[in-house]
Amino acid sequence: GMPKPATIQELRQFLDASKFLGKGADWNTLVYQFITKTPENHSILARISEKMNGPNDVNDALTYNRYVLYNISSFTTAATIDCDTNGGGASESSSTRLVVKGANSSCVVDGTRPIITTNSSLSNGLLHFTAASWYTQWWYIDFYANGAGRADYCVHSTNGVDTRCHFFFDCIMHGALDQANIFIEGARWAVVGCEIYGGKKGVWNDGTYFLFAYNKVHDNTSRGVEMDSTGSGSVGNLVYDNTGDGIEGNGGADYG
Predict the structure, then answer these.
(1) Whether the Cβ atoms of residue 34 and residue 10 lie closer than 8 Å to each other
(2) How far is the C-alpha of 241 from the C-alpha of 123, rounded, in Å?
C-alpha cells in the first residue's frame, strides 16, 4: 500500500469534489489531487488496481449490489413504480440486489422517512412487483396511497409470477382505502418493524412463507392482517383499532 494512508479530511474532500462534479468528474485526476498526491503513490495505487483487474471489479460489484439513498422529502408519482424494471434480479441465481434506504437531506440515514405518494388513480399501487424478481430491500420509506380514488395499494405484487425475497424494514404504509396498504402474492417476503394504518385492509398476504414481525397495524377500515397462505408467520405485532378482525389466518398460516 501507500506509505501514508489518506486522512479523513482528504477522503471528505475527494467525496465532496466528486459529488460536485458528478458525471463530469475525472477520477484519475481527483484521486491524484486528494488521495495519492505524488507520482510514486499514484503508481503504487495503479499497480494495486491492476491486480484487481482495474475498474471491472468495481463494475462487477455494482452488478451484485446497488445501494440507493433516497433523500427527496416528498415525491409525488403519476405512475406506478415498476420494481421489476428498477429492482433486483429476475431469479434466485441472480447476483443483483437492490437496497433502498430513506435518508435526510444530507444523505444521512437517521430514521428520516421520505414520502412516496400520488395524486393519480393507480390500480396497481405505488410500488408494484409484476414480473419475476428477487432480492430488494426497502428501509425508512413512507408510502402514502393518499386515500380513496388514488393508489389501490402502497405495495403490491402480482399473482402467478415469481416475486421472492423482498423485504421492508421500518417503513410506513398508509392511506390505501380502496384495497390494502400491502398486498403480497409472492413468496418469502418480510415486513418488519413497519407501521401500517389508515387503509382498507392493513396487510393482505396470499404468498407462502411470509414473515410479518414487530409491526404496528391499526385504524384500517377492514381487517388488520389477513394471511391466506401456508407457512407464514406473524410474530410480536401490535394490531389494534381495526374495524374488522385484527388477525385472520387461513391456509395453515401460523400466527399469534
Answers:
(1) yes
(2) 26
Of 244, 181, 183, 170, give the one whose Cα is nearest residue 210: 183
CB proximity list for 17: less than 8 A, separation 6 or greater: 25, 30, 33, 34
Q: What is the pTM of this model?
A: 0.72
- Report the alpha-carbon distance of residue 189 to residue 120 in Å, rounded: 27
| Cα separation values, 226 from 13, 19, 205, 247, 254, Å | 51, 45, 6, 6, 12
Asked whether the CA dihedral 123, 155, 63, 13 is positive or negative, the reply is positive
Residue type, 109: V
* Local structure of 24: helix, strand or coil: helix
| 3-state class percentages of the chain: helix first, strand second, coil last, to nearest 5 | 20, 35, 45
List pLDDT tens digits, range 124-178.
999 998 776 777 889 999 999 999 999 999 999 877 666 777 889 999 999 999 9
CB contact set of 5 (below 8 Å; sequence gap of 6+): none
